[in-house]
Design brief:
heterodimer, A: alpha+beta, Glutaredoxin, Neuraminidase, 18-stranded antiparallel sheet, six-stranded mixed sheet, 52 strands, B: mainly beta, Methylamine Dehydrogenase, Chain H, four-stranded antiparallel sheet, 2% helix, globular
Chain lengths: 943, 380
């Protein structure tokens, strides 16, 4: 392949790959963001918003539009401000659909509930079945929109440069403070942080930067500020934004206290509020039997056979989430749980929903669990005796699946699921026939079904009660024979995760009464029909308990949150605890009211409905002039456009390399590319014309002048999140002259390539720690007019990462690169990225091999230096020991080169890894070590 | 009228960029709008009529936003203080800039023009108040009393204002020396004063972020009364017929007896009130951040009408003849019939309107946050 012509093609492919993949050291690796679903986009125009939605979620979009306008009216008062431009809101009906968005290039983790993208001013929000949460997220993101607009306006009014923005704790804290009430989740986070000593003040917020804890601490801090200093201070913080460049100085001007002084007051109040809890409450770890506390552990279920009790749960010990099991009666505290289903490495088990989907085990020993699997979620049946997945169910009409529960006869499973319209309802699957029966069909959020051991009713949690719009869930009973739904609880605090005892006499569940989730029990034996039903509090934890599951003997296993970790605990002798419980609450079902109705846009003005057509706006518009002692002065510009949904991107590159006025017209370099990512098959095409002097290090150290013009077409098809096929074809006319020798070479080059890429590696702070990656490329390049060029290429790259411990791994790499034919390209090697110790790109050849073995391990977790005026910390410094070997040659193999040594790596802000290596080259055809040591300092991720 | 304005303007020397100096003393005219809301009581009523429909006479870029006051007009010159700290003078007739002078970081309130002296409040600047001699083109005195983000009240040869640290000052017009001052009580949380004081019958009245409305004897500084409004009072009071009208950030509009401070009536409007009320006969008109303009009967607070103007109302209106003009942050200026709230005229302003309009010399002056000063005149 012609080096110069191909480099332009690779540049464009890099853009394509960059949009599709993440965490790639080299662009041909990385996982795939797959556009499984072809959305039929529509636009709903309201007074202040352009709402983008797809046709299946029309009703949800209208509810969202209502919430958006409702929030706008509220926020324009809170901010004393209006937003002058129409705000684009892009809605998805589920998180799985949201994960396909092209409005951001990276992968979207399950915890991301929406975002405001500053460049295009667009807000992207998924629904998750809950109308109240949908409303909350819309308002949260609109706070960002208003805040950005307000601060921009304040700075513009005072003619100040818009080079400052509020700290993340303030912007996210305010977005929470003005969009939702203080709820059980917020209380959970703050209680845990205060009682376990991990709460930080405003002065130290960088220690928890970007975490959910920071959101909630910001929310709490602003609540305290508002209560103590006056609600007007929050607005004043923004209106005073022009006064100082530093937010801490603005803070001091506005409330009269600096961060440190404020922290003294705020943290003291937090202690006063939360410390008294310990008088009547216990930390979960102090009042329970520990079951699993390593890593992340949640959603337990107990299986009992042959007098052995085994707890199964969703866990994460290594970075990959999967199903774990542990003997519930294991007395060895050091015993670790066994990973029985390893997720997140294959398309079938692409990802678990550890916060959303409860698992369940049948009486005959089959475990039902849910994973994302391609476009939709899949329901898997895992046989506990044979330790294998025996059945997998996918439902075309269901996008996301929640918790599962077996029928007593093990023939059916009830589960909650979100359809394309965004409704979360209950379904029953009959395993033998694969029949799917829909139990509920409405916009209420129905979750956590639990089939009673008697088989006649299903308990579930739902927001269909009158307080549902505020996010309050109650428990309901669904009678299978009649389809009737009755209240089981009726309270102002949410209840969820019902679990029947094996004898059907008790129902354990979580309730947020008292601030955070604790476990309560309804004892039906003590609640005969006709009497006022009561519920009894079982746990009195300071921090929450989740997802109770009964054992046959009446013990309870459940999840807890403590010290920022999710663990599994057990309470034995539940009956005894209940008999002595002091908190019993009546359930007044006579007070119950009708379900609520969602607000609509009815009567609102300026509503239009349109089909979406690409609306393009600038992403990048940059110009630059550079001067180089060799290449002279080059001036140019690049412009990038994309549509509002990010599906189509256009790049325009224009620069001129003329050295004299007469060269001006002939020295224009132009490239136009279009990248389409709206469908699963991504493609790119473009045309280009480049001219100028080149330096080709792959051939020689010579300069040559080249004029090349042509076009290309490239396709990338993701087979799954982990594998893809790429192919490209390009044709270019290349005319080059070797400067000095006046040797001319003309060629009409036709290049074809096809690649297969696999990557399921898991990344640590400096590079991959687990999984493997593989890439194979076959290419053929020929001059179809002059026959000056004619060669083929085989490029194979394999990496394997063998996890040795949680944070250490043995990384292996093998390269085999092979070019053969007329004017075939030479590969280059040497330097920190491949053959360490040898000068950068000093080894060249049409054939190349390289192998590297590297032991990666943690070295320093935190390195802090405290100066009199402040401190600085460096995190996650990693160590490496390595050995490399390889060679590059044309026709005759010459010798083998190598190196051995060690190094340190330090991650800076998640975007850059600084690397320092020291070692010895292995010279003389791999027979002698270098005299002295080499050292190399560079940056870039580990291979 | 137009030719007269032109000839008056022509008598003035344009000092050029970066300077502001008049060739002659400014004279008080009956058409003047010399302070925010025209009078020390903030009555905001023009001397002449200005009947809709209005047409845009001119638009002038003043290079920065305007704060919470209004343009002021004296002797056919419009003066605006900008948030970039510049005092600008423009011709009423043409909008042409006569001159400007940078006095500090920001002018949040309005200047007060008295004779040929402009008393300019400043924020985040070394000085708090500058008495700028427009004839000499230089300050007469400068004083530092903290950040002042209100429009001062010039009353009985004293200047009254509060600062953002919660201290209220009475200073001498001639020298800027303090005659008396008052600090908000128990002010441990830096409550400020952002409500421009109004005065009448020897009493000066203002609201504060501590949720109180204060009244002082203008001469002695003796506190006459304090009224607890229950929420920060950012709006400036209106004093008319012995009654103080003012709203708070929770949206309650109060009528207080000027002598006693007792509430004659109060009414909840449902949204924060930042705007001062304006009187039109027996009706008091006030807007809130929900975009509602509301007409109250002055005597008993009966809500006579309310009109949705579609965008938050951050500033009070101006009455000219039988029309009250009110701007909104939805970038529109409205003319309303004070009797029934009917919209009689509407125009697009091109930017959010956060300041009160001024009506003088046959023009309606409106500042927008697109840094434009607009002048409308009658269509005929």
């Amino acid at each position: 392949m012609n080096r110069s012509a191909s480099s332009y093609l690779w540049l464009v492919l890099l853009l394509l790959a960059g949009a599709l993949t993440a965490h790639a050291q080299f662009f041909y690796f990385g996982r795939n963001k797959v556009q499984y679903t072809e959305f039929d986009w529509r636009v709903l125009k309201t007074e202040h918003f352009d709402i983008y939605y797809y046709i299946e979620m029309k009703d949800l979009a209208e509810r969202g539009a209502h919430f958006a306008e409702e929030s706008y009216a509220l926020l324009q008062q809170k901010f004393n401000h209006t937003v002058n431009t129409r705000v684009p809101l892009i809605f998805y009906s589920s998180h799985l659909h949201f994960e396909q968005t092209n409005t951001t290039g990276g992968f979207i983790p399950e915890g991301i509930g929406g975002f405001f993208e500053f460049l295009k001013g667009r807000v992207v929000i998924p629904a998750d079945g809950s109308v109240s949460e949908f409303r909350h997220v819309i308002r949260h993101e609109l706070v960002h929109v208003f805040m950005t607009s307000k601060i921009t306006r304040v700075l513009a009014d005072h003619r100040k440069v818009g080079d400052r923005s509020p700290p993340l704790w303030f912007s996210e804290g305010l977005a929470e403070y003005w969009s939702t009430e203080w709820d059980a989740q917020a209380e959970m986070v703050m209680r845990d942080a205060v009682l376990n000593g991990s709460v930080v003040g405003l002065n130290d917020m960088d220690r928890i930067y970007g975490t959910f804890v920071m959101y909630k601490e910001g929310q709490d801090a602003l609540g305290f500020l508002s209560r103590t200093f006056g609600q007007e201070k929050i607005l004043l913080l923004m209106e005073n934004f022009w006064k100082e460049a530093s937010f801490s100085d603005i803070f001091k001007i506005t409330i009269g206290k600096d961060f440190k002084e404020f922290d003294e007051m705020w943290l003291y109040e937090l202690k006063k509020k939360h410390y008294p809890l310990l008088a009547a409450h216990d930390a979960p770890s102090m009042a329970t039997v520990n079951v699993a506390r390593e890593g992340f552990s949640a959603k337990p279920v107990v299986y009992e056979a042959d007098s052995q009790r085994t707890v199964y749960f969703i866990g994460n010990r290594t970075g990959y989430t999967g199903i774990y099991r542990k003997n519930l009666d294991e007395r060895n505290p050091l015993a670790t749980a066994e990973n029985v289903v390893q997720g997140e490495k294959t398309d079938e088990l692409e990802s678990f929903h550890p916060f959303q989907s409860r698992i369940d085990v049948s009486a005959d020993g089959r475990l039902a669990f849910v994973t994302k699997s391609g476009e939709h979620d899949a329901l898997h049946i895992y046989d506990l005796r044979s330790d294998e997945i025996v059945q997998t169910f996918r439902f075309k009409e269901l996008v996301s699946i929640g918790s599962t529960s077996w029928s007593p006869d093990s023939r059916k499973i009830v589960f909650s699921a979100i359809n394309a319209a965004g409704d979360n309802d209950l379904y029953i699957l009959t395993l033998a026939t694969k029949d799917l029966q829909r139990l509920t069909n409405d916009y209420y959020d129905d979750r956590d079904p639990a089939w009673s051991p008697g088989g006649d009713v299903i308990a579930f949690s739902s927001d269909r009660g009158p307080s549902g719009p505020r996010g309050v869930y109650n428990l309901f009973l669904y009678t299978i024979s009649s389809g009737r739904i009755d209240y089981l609880t009726y309270d102002s605090a949410s209840a969820g995760s019902p679990a029947w005892s094996k004898d059907s006499t008790k129902l354990a569940f979580t309730s947020e009464l008292g601030g955070v989730k604790n476990i309560w029990v309804i004892d039906f034996a003590k609640n005969p029909p006709g009497t006022m039903r009561t519920m009894t509090r079982l746990t009195r934890f300071t921090t929450p308990a989740f997802d109770p599951a009964w054992t046959r003997s009446g013990d309870l296993v459940f999840g807890t949150f403590e010290k920022l970790g999710f663990q599994i605990k057990e309470i034995k002798n539940v009956r005894g605890v209940l008999d002595t419980a002091s908190v019993v609450r009546s359930i007044d079902l006579f007070a119950k009211e009708k379900p609520w109705e969602a607000g609509t846009l009815a009567g609102a003005s300026e509503i239009k409905r349109l089909r979406y057509r690409g609306e393009y706006s600038l992403d990048i518009a940059e110009s630059a002039i550079s001067t180089d002692p060799v290449f002279g002065t080059v001036g140019g510009a690049i412009v990038a456009l994309s549509d509002l949904l990010g599906n189509d991107q256009y790049y325009f590159l224009l620069y001129n390399t003329a050295q004299t006025q007469s060269d001006l017209l002939s020295s224009f370099n132009v490239a136009i590319s279009h990248i389409s990512m709206g469908q699963r098959t991504n493609y790119a095409y473009g045309i280009y014309r480049f001219t100028g002097r080149r330096y080709d290090l792959s051939v020689s150290d010579d300069y040559f002048y080249e004029r090349v013009y042509g076009g290309y077409f490239a396709i990338s098809y993701p087979l799954s999140k982990f594998e893809r096929i790429e192919t490209s074809v390009s044709m270019s006319n290349s005319n080059r002259e070797l400067i000095g020798d006046f040797v001319e070479r003309r060629a009409l080059l036709l290049s074809n390539s096809i690649s297969f890429v696999h990557d399921n590696s898991l990344w640590g702070p400096s590079g991959p720690l687990d999984g493997n990656a593989f890439s194979l490329t076959l290419a053929y390049t020929s001059d179809i007019q002059y026959s000056n060029v004619n060669y083929y290429s085989v490029i194979a790259d394999y990496r394997n990462y063998l996890r040795l411990a949680t944070r250490s791994a043995l990384a292996s790499r093998l390269w085999l690169f092979y070019n053969d034919g007329k004017e075939s390209r030479r590969f280059v090697m040497g330097g920190s990225w491949d053959l360490r110790g040898w000068p950068l790109w000093s080894l060249r050849g049409q054939k190349l091999w390289l192998t590297s073995q590297e032991l990666r391990f943690p070295f320093i977790d935190q390195f802090a230096v405290q100066f009199p005026f402040g401190g600085i910390s460096f995190w996650s410094i990693r160590g490496a020991l390595f050995v490399d070997a390889g060679s590059a040659w044309d026709n005759q193999y010459t010798q083998t080169y190598g190196s051995i040594g060690g190094g340190l790596r330090m991650n800076l802000g998640g975007v850059l890894v600084l690397r320092y290596d020291i070692g010895k080259r292995i010279e003389n055809n791999f027979t002698a070590l270098q005299q002295g040591l080499f050292t190399q300092f560079f940056f870039g991720w580990d291979f | 009228m137009g030719s007269r304005l032109l000839s008056l303007s022509a008598l003035l020397l344009i000092a050029g960029c970066g300077g502001l100096r008049m060739e002659r003393y400014l004279h008080s005219r009956s058409d003047d709008w010399p302070v925010f809301a025209r009078t020390v009581g903030h009555t905001a009523s023009a001397s002449g009529a200005l009947s809709p429909p209005l047409n845009l006479a001119w638009s002038q870029d003043i290079s920065a936003g305007m704060g919470n006051g209004s343009p002021v007009v004296v002797d056919s010159i419009v003066f605006v203080g900008t948030l970039r700290g510049e005092l600008c003078a423009l011709s009423v007739a043409t909008g042409k800039q006569i001159g400007s002078i940078a006095l500090g970081e920001a002018i949040q309130g309005s200047p007060v023009i008295d004779g040929s002296v402009a008393f300019v409040p400043l924020s985040n600047s070394p000085q708090s108040i500058t008495a700028f001699d427009l004839f000499e083109g230089k300050p007469r005195w400068k004083k530092s009393y903290g950040d002042v983000e209100v429009t001062p009240c010039l009353f009985a040869q004293k200047i009254f204002f509060g600062n953002t640290a919660g201290t209220f000052f009475s200073i001498e017009r001639a020298t800027g020396d303090v005659r008396w001052k008052f600090e908000l009580p128990d002010n441990t949380t830096l409550k400020g004063i952002r409500s421009s004081p109004a005065a009448d019958s020897g009493t000066v009245v203002f609201g504060a972020d501590d949720g109180k409305v204060y009244a002082f004897d203008a001469e002695t500084g003796a506190r006459r009364w304090t009224f607890d409004a229950g929420a920060p009072v950012v709006a400036s009071p209106l004093i008319v017929s012995g009654t103080v009208f003012v709203g708070n950030r929770l949206g309650t509009f109060f009528a207080l007896n000027l002598s006693s401070g007792r509430a004659a009536w109060q009414s909840r409007t449902g949204a924060p009130i930042y705007a001062n009320g304006v009187p039109a006969g027996d009706i008091i008109i006030v807007g809130n951040l929900a975009g509602e303009a509301i007409g109250f009967r002055k005597s008993d607070g009966m809500r006579l009408w309310h009109t949705d103007l579609g965008g938050p109302i951050n500033a009070g209106g101006a009455v000219a003849g039988s029309t009250v003009y009110i701007g909104t942050m939805k970038k529109q200026i409205f003319g309303l019939n004070p009797e029934d709230g009917a919209i009689t005229w509407k125009a697009e302003a091109g930017g959010r309107i956060r300041t009160s309009p001024a009506a003088a010399f046959g023009r309606l002056f409106v500042a927008t946050d697109e840094h434009d000063l607009l002048a409308f005149r009658e269509t005929k």
